[in-house]
C-alpha cells in the first residue's frame, strides 16, 4: 500500500503542471455525481405527489427538471472526458520524451545486457497502460466515488433509520475490490514482462529475417513465437478470470444488502412509518449507489494494471548512467600533442577476467596507429574507451595530458569521429545522414564530403540526389556505398581523432579499394586509431600495435615487426596463406 501511495504521488507530480485540467474535470465530476443524486431524489415527489396525490402542477415541472438534469449531465460529461483524455495524451508525450532521453544517456553496458524489446515495450506498451490510469481509471474512480457519496446522502436523507441496513455490504465490497485489484496488479506486471518478450522476438527476427530465411528457420521461429504467445494467452485468461468474477461478486454483495433493505422497509411501510415514494426514492438511490461500486471494482483492476506499468516506467526513469560528467567538468580542446593510454585495465561486468591489462600507448598528433590481433584480444574494447563508452577500472586516458574523465562527454565526443565495420545509417535522406554530426552543414559542404569519400558519383546518379531516402539501416545502398556515406559523415564532423574499427573487412575488392582511398584521405586529416582485420590495409601505418590476450605483445612498423618474426609475422603468414588458398 505504501508503494501504491508513492507511485500515485509521483503521478500527481507529473500531473501538477496540468492541474487546471484536473480541477475543472473534478468540478465536472462533482456536478455529474450530483445529477445522479438528483435523479434518485426526484423519485419521491414523482411517486407520492404525481402518482399518489395526483398533483397536476408537477406533471409538467418534473419532466422539465429531469430534461434539464440530463442536459447538464451531457455537458459536464463531455468536458470531463475531453479534459482527462487530453491530460492523458500530454502525460504520455511527457513521459515518452523523458524516457527516451533517459535511454539515450544510459551506459553502453546496459544496452549489452538488456534486449531492445525491453526498451521499446516500456516506451510504448507500459506508457500506454499508464495513460489509462491518468485519463480513465483515476478520473472514473473519482467520479464513481462522488456518485456513491451523493447517492448515499439521498439514502440517509430519505430514510436514515434504514440507512444502516444498506451499508452492511459495503465493507465486504471494499475488501473484494482491494483483493481483486492486488491480484490484477501481479498479473499486469507479468503481462508487461511478457510483452517485452514478444517485442524482443519480433525485433530480432524481423531485423534478422535474411538469416532466418537463409537457414530455413521460419518454422522454428514461428514455433518460438507460438510458445511466447501461449504464455501471453494464459496470463490474459487469468486477467479475464479476475475481471469476470469481480462484477458478479459485488452483485452478490449488493443483492444481499438490497434484500435486507427490502425486508426491513416492507415492515416500515406496513407499520406506517414511511411512504411508498420515500421507499422507492430510497431503493433507487441504493441500487444506483451499488452500480458505481461495481464499476469501481473494474476500474480498480485497471488502476492496478496501470500502476504496475507506472512502476516499470519509473524504475527506468530512476536508472542513472555510471559514466557521467564530474562536477565542474571542462571543455576539451582539439588534440594538438598526443593521445596517451596509461596502464589501462578493463573488464566487462559480464566477463570472467580482465579484457585489457596494463595497456600503455602513446599516439602523437597526426599519427596513424593500427591495432591488430586475433578476435577477442581487446582491440575494439580499447578503442571504445576513448569516447568513454566504457570506463576503465585501472589507469587513465589523456588527451594532451588532460584526463578525459575531467572533461564533458559532449566535448570529448565532438573531438572523435568513428567509422566501423557495420555503420548505422538511419531511414532518412542522404543529406541528413551525412550531416548527422553537423546538422547545419550546407549542401556545398555535404557534396565536398561525399566527393572526398568517393561517394559523389553514385549519389549524383540517384533521381533525388541528396534527398534520396536510403531505407532502414541504409538497405537501399550496397555495403560499399553505406561505408562511403559513413566516411562522408566522419569527414564532415569537426573532430581531431579518428577511430576506424575494421572499416573495410566486410567489403569486396572493388568496394574496398574505393573505401580505402576515401579512408586514406580521411586519415590525412586526423590522428587515427585503426583496428584492422586485413593486415594489408595497415602496412603504411606509422606504428602497428599487436595485442594478445588483452595486453600489448609487440609494437613497431610493418617491416620491423615482420623482421622480428613474432606474433605479427605469424598473423601475416596465416592471412597470406589464406588469401593464396582463396586465389
Topology:
Elements: H1 2-15, H2 19-41, H3 43-52, H4 57-104, H5 108-113, H6 116-158, H7 160-166, H8 170-207, H9 209-214, H10 218-270, H11 276-317, E1 338-346, E2 356-364, E3 368-372, H12 379-385, E4 394-399, E5 402-403, H13 409-414, E6 416-420, H14 430-434, H15 443-452, H16 456-460, H17 479-492, E7 497-501, H18 509-523, E8 527-531, E9 543-548, E10 551-556, H19 558-564, H20 567-582
Parallel strand pairs: 3-8, 3-9, 6-7, 7-8
Antiparallel strand pairs: 1-2, 1-4, 4-5, 9-10
Helix pairs in contact: 1-11, 2-4, 2-6, 2-11, 3-11, 4-6, 6-7, 6-8, 6-11, 7-10, 8-10, 8-11, 10-11, 15-17, 17-18, 19-20
Describe this structure in words.
The chain is an alpha/beta fold and 583 residues long. The protein has two domains: 7-317, ABC transporter type 1, transmembrane domain (ABC transporter transmembrane region fold); 329-415 and 533-583, P-loop containing nucleotide triphosphate hydrolases (Rossmann fold, 3-Layer(aba) Sandwich). The chain has 20 helices and ten strands. The strands form two sheets. A six-stranded mixed beta sheet has the order 6-7-8-3-9-10, with helices on both faces. Helix 18 (509-523) links the parallel strand 7 and strand 8 (527-531). Helix 6 runs antiparallel to helix 11 (276-317) and helix 15 packs across helix 17. Mean pLDDT is 80; it is low at 578-583.
Amino acid at each position: 500500500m505504501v508503494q501504491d501511495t508513492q507511485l500515485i504521488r509521483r503521478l500527481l507530480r507529473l500531473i501538477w503542471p496540468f492541474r487546471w485540467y484536473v480541477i475543472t474535470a473534478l468540478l465536472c465530476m462533482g456536478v455529474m455525481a450530483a445529477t445522479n443524486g438528483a435523479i434518485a431524489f426526484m423519485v419521491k415527489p414523482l411517486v407520492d405527489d404525481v402518482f399518489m396525490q395526483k398533483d397536476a402542477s408537477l406533471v409538467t415541472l418534473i419532466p422539465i427538471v429531469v430534461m434539464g438534469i440530463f442536459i447538464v449531465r451531457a455537458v459536464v460529461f463531455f468536458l470531463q472526458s475531453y479534459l482527462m483524455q487530453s491530460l492523458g495524451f500530454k502525460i504520455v508525450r511527457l513521459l515518452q520524451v523523458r524516457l527516451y532521453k533517459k535511454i539515450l544517456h544510459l551506459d553502453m553496458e546496459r544496452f549489452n545486457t538488456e534486449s531492445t524489446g525491453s526498451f521499446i515495450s516500456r516506451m510504448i506498451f507500459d506508457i500506454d497502460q499508464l495513460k489509462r490510469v491518468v485519463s480513465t481509471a483515476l478520473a472514473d474512480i473519482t467520479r464513481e466515488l462522488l456518485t456513491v457519496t451523493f447517492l448515499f446522502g439521498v439514502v440517509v436523507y430519505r430514510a436514515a433509520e434504514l440507512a444502516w441496513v444498506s451499508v452492511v455490504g459495503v465493507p465486504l465490497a471494499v475488501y473484494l475490490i482491494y483483493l481483486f485489484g492486488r491480484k490484477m496488479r501481479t498479473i499486469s506486471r507479468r503481462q508487461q514482462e511478457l510483452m517485452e518478450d514478444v517485442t524482443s522476438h519480433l525485433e530480432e527476427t524481423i531485423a534478422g529475417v535474411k538469416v532466418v530465411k537463409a537457414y530455413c528457420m521460419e518454422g522454428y521461429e514461428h514455433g518460438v513465437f507460438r510458445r511466447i504467445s501461449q504464455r501471453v494467452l494464459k496470463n490474459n485468461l487469468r486477467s479475464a478470470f479476475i475481471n469476470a468474477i469481480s462484477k458478479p461478486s459485488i452483485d452478490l454483495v449488493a443483492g444481499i444488502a438490497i434484500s435486507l433493505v427490502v425486508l426491513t422497509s416492507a415492515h416500515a411501510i406496513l407499520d406506517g412509518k414511511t411512504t411508498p415514494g420515500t421507499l422507492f426514492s430510497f431503493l433507487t438511490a441504493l441500487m444506483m449507489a451499488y452500480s458505481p461500486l461495481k464499476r469501481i471494482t473494474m476500474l480498480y483492476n485497471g488502476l492496478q494494471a496501470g500502476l504496475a506499468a507506472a512502476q516499470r516506467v519509473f524504475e527506468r526513469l530512476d536508472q542513472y548512467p555510471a559514466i557521467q560528467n564530474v562536477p565542474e567538468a571542462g571543455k576539451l580542446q582539439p588534440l594538438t600533442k598526443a593521445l596517451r593510454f596509461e596502464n589501462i585495465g578493463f573488464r566487462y561486468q559480464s566477463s570472467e577476467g580482465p579484457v585489457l591489462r596494463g595497456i600503455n600507448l602513446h599516439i602523437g598528433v597526426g599519427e596513424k596507429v593500427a591495432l591488430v590481433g586475433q578476435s577477442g584480444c581487446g582491440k575494439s574494447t580499447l578503442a571504445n574507451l576513448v569516447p568513454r563508452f566504457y570506463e576503465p577500472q585501472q589507469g587513465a586516458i589523456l588527451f594532451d595530458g588532460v584526463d578525459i574523465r575531467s572533461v564533458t562527454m559532449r566535448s570529448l565526443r565532438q573531438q572523435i569521429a568513428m567509422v566501423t565495420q557495420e555503420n548505422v545509417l538511419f531511414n532518412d535522406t542522404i543529406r541528413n545522414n551525412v550531416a548527422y554530426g553537423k546538422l547545419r552543414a550546407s549542401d556545398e559542404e555535404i557534396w565536398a564530403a561525399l566527393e572526398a569519400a568517393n561517394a559523389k558519383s553514385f549519389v549524383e546518379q540517384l533521381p533525388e540526389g541528396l534527398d534520396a531516402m536510403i531505407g532502414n539501416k541504409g538497405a537501399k545502398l550496397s555495403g560499399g556505398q553505406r561505408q562511403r556515406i559513413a566516411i562522408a559523415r566522419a569527414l564532415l564532423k569537426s573532430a581531431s581523432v579518428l577511430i576506424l574499427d575494421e572499416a573495410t573487412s566486410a567489403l569486396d575488392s572493388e568496394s574496398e579499394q574505393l573505401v580505402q582511398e576515401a579512408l586514406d584521405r580521411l586519415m590525412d586529416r586526423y590522428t587515427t586509431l585503426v583496428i584492422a582485420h586485413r593486415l594489408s590495409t595497415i602496412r603504411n601505418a606509422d606504428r602497428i600495435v599487436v595485442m594478445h590476450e588483452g595486453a600489448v605483445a609487440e609494437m613497431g612498423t610493418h617491416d620491423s615487426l615482420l623482421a622480428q618474426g613474432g606474433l605479427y609475422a605469424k598473423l601475416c603468414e596465416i592471412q597470406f596463406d589464406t588469401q593464396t588458398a582463396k586465389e
